[in-house]
Amino acid sequence: MTRFSHFDATLWYATAAPPAPTEPLRDAVEADVCIVGGGYAGLTTALELAKAGTRAVLLEREEIGFGGSGRNAGHCTPTFTHYSLGELRSILGAPWAERLIRRQTRANDRAGQMIRDYQISCEWVQNGYVMGALRPNQIAALTEKAQSYNAVGARTRVLDRDEVAEVTGSPRFYGGWLHEEAGHLNPLGYARGLARAVMQEGGVIHTRSAVTGCARRGAGWEVTTAEGRVRAERVIFTTGAYTVGGWPRLEESFRIQRVFVAATQPLDPETRAAVLPRNTTIHDGRGDIFVYKYDAEGRIVASMFPMGRRGGDLAYTRQVMADRLRWLHPQIGEQIRWDYLWFGELDMQQRTVPRLYGLAPGVVALTGLSGRGVPTGTMLGGILSDWALGMPEADLDLRVEPLHRAPLWMSVVPALKLRQMRLSDNLAARRSGAPLPPHA
Q1: Which of 275, 373, 391, 413 gets the most CB atoms within 10 Å of its CB?
Q2: Alpha helices in 185-313 (DSSP H)
Q3: Domain span(s) for CATH 3.30.9.10 in the chain
Q4: Dihedral of CA 186/176/278/165: which sign?
Q5: Does the keyword section mention Oxidoreductase (predicted)?
Q6: pTM (predicted TM-score)
Q7: CATH class of residue range 7-73+188-254+350-406
């Protein structure tokens, strides 16, 4: 079994619209830009370039959406994973922070527009996202979050206890933060639809075309595969956590954090009317996160991070997820059955924001989506296409940096941080008298 196996075990593989027909690269071709990686960032870059009349060729080692773009849970929340907006400004500085904040907070606008323009069949709904408060003392932080995001143009608000119960169907929350512009979709369906859009606009896609090298040829570059090559003026690597070769040491620029996603059987209409009655995405508000939403057929799709037995012992993992869901929604009862359970990988960066690396004149790589893939990958296509079309680096919305190796401690710190957040949540709950979820 390889690290990237069992793509066909995901729910999305069973339910997404079929892929557009593609073939491996078997010839020598010319392009203005060669893009390596068939996930959201690569596909949206290719789409933007093809629309601009640029000859774009995209190479994918496996099939479209094979990596994180086909394995994620389908949440589309245009926020930042870990840092507050104030912290992000301190980390990135001016003008980079404001540029990235503007791109990210409007990313769902871009995703929705592409879905409409190209009639992508991907279960897209924009019914909002709720971060719940399982303790009364969390409300102040959610109020501050609402104020900061609203100040940059997002539509968010804080819900009181009655409102959050009405939106989520859960009696457990003391309040919550509602991001009205958030949505969810079938992530593999979205990736496959983007691929069709690229080809519709004249872009070229070759799957089953693993890149074996990238070398200077005259004024441009030659990207090689087992059976063909692409000569291009510029090259963009967007392989993320699923990077295998292609450019020396690129896979050392991040560290892997695994995540698992599970999906229930389709729930009956009466249960759906009581649990997530507005078809909203829910984050239970704990640092050791539990995030869940429905698919189009009424399955609850939920995700968590592995920790101890959770993620290793699959029977125990299913039990943990069922117990958490029933604790949040007692009206579910005993009917939950997890029909699907699969794993994905995140390319984690120390700062949990994307990194744009200048590998050589005319070659860049993007890594570090760090778990906010759908909106982030979508908006990054605009930045990468700006670079490919010749925008000066100083004017880009993401700073170009030298390639560097992620520190070794990043191999263990994300997992340790999850444990620390769980312990912190548990201690805070006990101090406030709030109940703890099972297996906390």
Answers
A1: 373
A2: 187-200, 269-274
A3: 129-180+266-336+413-432
A4: positive
A5: yes
A6: 0.96
A7: alpha beta
